[in-house]
Amino acid sequence: MKVYYSDICLKHAPKHEILSGTLVDYVESPSRLTTIVNQLQTQSSSKHFEFLSPSDHGLDAILAIHDVDYIEYLKSAYKEWCEEGGNKNGVIPEAFPHSGFTSVSRGKIKNLKSSIAKAGLYCFDLSCCITEGRPPGHHANSKLSGGGCFLNNAAITAKLLINNPDSNGNARKVAILDIDYHHGNGTQDIFYSQSNPLYVSLHASNDFPWFTGEVTEIGEGEGEGYNVNIPLPEETSDEIYCELLEKVIKERIIPYGANYLLVSLGVDTYKDDPIGGFQMTTDVYKRIGRIIKSIELPTLFVMEGGYYLETLGINVTNVLLGFMDN
Ligand SMILES: [Zn+2]
């Protein structure tokens, strides 16, 4: 299996964030990546993983998903924030132009000069501390960061595949399977009115990002019927999760007839995860990999969440080993 990884991602290393009112160490830490990479490289199965550096596809692929003003903001945000006197730990918004904030003037928003003010314009929560590097993506939509995500990596890849027809000139169909503990509100939002890709998410029903992820969110217009949410209770076990995963694959993903599968892979479903966690154990992840293999499509796993460092590397590796039927 090919593993694409860059040390550039390690540059994203804010010191702390505010979680449920408490100042905590930043959960989206570089140690997550080093733990996963070390596990893939050192364990006996390392012969199965070929490490490669990602190639640069330029900004066009990103701009096919994200608004140009948002990307321009991200490019300069940290530098301007520091120049304006913001804390060097990273950009954290201090005011949001909430839709219920009736005095918000559209003209004023367009002409915002302050990078401190802009932070609230391009972010929906306090978790996106901008420094450098590139963290996960499924909470980011076309113009907003949030949930530790800035660029929606799965959405960018899906669009890149969809926009490049196969050798016979036929459009490629993509299915995105999101198995992170949290609902991928950004991916849902980006493709909500489109029938390609199909978006399927299994996630916690009563957790971040709180306002999305209901069964009734099925897509709209051309996209109606191509957005599938399966919200789950905290007590979800290995057995129940696997049953539901197999069911949605059989009933929704296989009939869709995709050419490619993208998996938004989060292992924050693990029972001891500090910001997530169903009742799932390390043993289940190989089984999940095998179930995904049963779809029999060319597959890309895109790393999303998973924050319990002691088992993070093993759980991720197990999904990939299961997929390879090892
Ligand atoms: Zn998550």
From TrEMBL:
Signal peptide: none
Domain Histone deacetylase: 27-320
Gene Ontology molecular-function annotations: histone deacetylase activity; hydrolase activity; metal ion binding
An annotated GO BP: epigenetic regulation of gene expression
Domain of life of the source: Eukaryota
Keywords: Hydrolase, Metal-binding, Zinc
PANTHER family in the record: HISTONE DEACETYLASE 8, HISTONE DEACETYLASE HDAC1-RELATED
Protein name: Histone deacetylase domain-containing protein
Organism of this sequence: Gigaspora rosea
